[in-house]
């Protein structure tokens, strides 16, 4: 007969083996969806996240990073090969590995990577690419940052966007195929809540937080006078610096959500982070998704600077835009305005160029608003009890996604002068497209776009 201590040893070994098998792997997917130096923080924050995950012992082969990767070496960058998320912060670009760059960063590639479709990725980009090759015992952490609009998350390119229905369908597919045990998604974008609100099931083991609710914008922080750019996001810096200094084996997802919520409520213009999906998961500790080993390094930034001073400040506005913590979709206007205000060392020619650029952007903003009003008027020959004000001010969810997709694509084709990729502030009018599609036939909406864009000279601008 085996001694009692021998039996206990075998039982203990069996328990350890079961725990090891059930623990599975940790996977991380990081997405930076914007290009251009003006969108500095949209590339710097995912780089910060990459270092955070690596310092927390997530192996590089289990991290997939998608980024256009043109900011660090942009001619406007005063220190080539440099990215920070706080003025005076450490350089995060060295060692920030990227798996997909430039034209490979698309919604189609993202969905193939997320769902582990290696062949699909190869067909799209012509080469083998790293994917989330996860299984039923694995945990997945996804962090996405870019500009957004109602029901859409934008990618680089003139008219390239991920629709909420396509994202949710991919997540449901992954659940059916048992491609994860639990998944956490952090999303930073204006209207980011609209990607999940009323759509993400509560019973597929996915928990997500967003930087804003379904109907509001998100906000930037951390203006860097030397780099002449906003280098951080309020939501992003809040969770990133919290993860850098917190004990990830004690702090929960909910506690980190509270950290981001408090940060986003500090500026004069607030956003309201949200939680969606399986809220029971918010009791899980951060280490289950953001770390692999108990021996992780507790700080990617040696000084662990507090971001509070970069979030709050004296009132400083242009055309009603807070220039300390501007809305993410106002980045072009806010950046140009601050450069002009701080242009003492610039030539008079450069100042005139900045003024002209500001005037043009304000014109585009005005025309986008005017065009939307005319579009709503033209699309409502049969109002069905609704007024134009109802359509212009309503905050409805996307009920007719096919009409909405078709309308956005057609409008972008018909009116290149209002480039929603270049001018994200023009997306503030997209809610009217959703409301129209929910109440009018698709043909009425398309005919209205055809009729109205014909009358605007800006729609013929390239």
TrEMBL record:
Locate the transmembrane regions by residue number: none
**Gene3D superfamilies from the entry?**
1.10.132.130, 3.40.50.1460
The residues forming a coiled coil are: 337-371
Q: Which InterPro entries match?
A: Legum_prodom, Legumain_prodom_sf, Peptidase_C13
Q: Signal sequence: where? A: 1-23
Q: Which residues form the Legumain prodomain domain?
A: 353-449
Q: Does the keyword Kinase apply?
A: no
The UniProt record lists the keyword Signal: yes
Q: Which of UniProt's keywords are assigned here?
A: Coiled coil, Signal
Write down the Pfam families for this protein, in alphabetical order: Legum_prodom, Peptidase_C13
Family listed? Belongs to the peptidase C13 family.
Protein name per the record: Legumain
């Amino acid at each position: 007969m085996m001694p009692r201590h021998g039996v206990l040893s075998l039982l203990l070994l069996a328990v350890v083996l079961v725990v090891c098998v059930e623990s599975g792997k940790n996977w991380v997917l990081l997405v930076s969806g914007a290009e251009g130096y003006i969108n500095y923080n949209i590339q710097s924050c995912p780089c910060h996240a990459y270092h955070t995950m690596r310092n927390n012992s997530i192996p590089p082969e289990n991290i997939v990073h998608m980024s256009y990767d043109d900011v660090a070496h942009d001619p406007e960058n005063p220190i080539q090969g440099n990215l920070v998320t706080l003025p005076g912060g450490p350089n995060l670009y060295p060692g920030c590995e990227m798996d997909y760059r430039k034209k490979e960063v698309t919604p189609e590639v993202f969905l193939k990577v997320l769902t582990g479709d290696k062949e699909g990725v190869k067909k799209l980009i012509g080469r083998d690419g790293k994917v989330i090759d996860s299984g039923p015992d694995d945990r997945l952490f996804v962090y996405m940052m870019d500009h957004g609009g109602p029901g859409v998350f934008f990618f680089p390119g003139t008219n390239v966007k991920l629709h909420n229905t396509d994202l949710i369908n991919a997540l449901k597919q992954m659940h059916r195929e048992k491609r994860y045990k639990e998944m956490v998604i952090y999303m930073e974008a204006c209207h980011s809540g609209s990607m999940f609100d009323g759509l993400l099931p509560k019973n597929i083991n996915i928990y997500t937080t967003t930087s804003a609710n379904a109907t509001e914008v998100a906000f930037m922080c951390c203006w860097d006078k030397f780099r002449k750019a906003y280098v951080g996001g309020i939501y992003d810096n809040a969770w990133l610096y919290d993860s850098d200094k917190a004990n990830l084996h004690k702090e929960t997802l909910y506690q980190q959500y509270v950290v981001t919520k408090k940060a986003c409520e500090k500026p004069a213009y607030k956003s309201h982070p949200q939680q969606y999906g399986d809220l029971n998961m918010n009791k899980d500790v951060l280490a289950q998704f953001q770390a692999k080993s108990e021996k992780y390094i507790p700080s990617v930034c040696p000084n662990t600077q507090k971001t509070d001073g970069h979030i709050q400040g004296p009132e400083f506005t242009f055309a009603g835009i807070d220039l300390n913590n501007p809305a993410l979709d106002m980045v072009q206007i806010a950046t140009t305005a601050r450069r002009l205000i701080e242009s003492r060392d610039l030539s008079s020619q450069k100042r005139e160029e900045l003024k002209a650029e500001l005037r043009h952007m304000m014109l585009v903003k005005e025309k986008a608003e005017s065009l939307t009003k005319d579009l709503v008027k033209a699309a409502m020959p049969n109002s069905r009890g609704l007024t134009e004000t109802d359509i212009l001010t309503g905050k409805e969810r996307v009920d007719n996604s096919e009409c909405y997709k078709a309308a956005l694509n057609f409008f972008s084709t018909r009116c290149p002068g209002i480039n929603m990729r270049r001018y994200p502030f023009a997306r503030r009018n997209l809610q009217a497209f959703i409301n129209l599609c929910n109440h009018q036939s698709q043909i009425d909406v398309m005919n209205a776009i055809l009729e109205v864009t014909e009358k605007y000279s800006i729609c013929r601008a390239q």
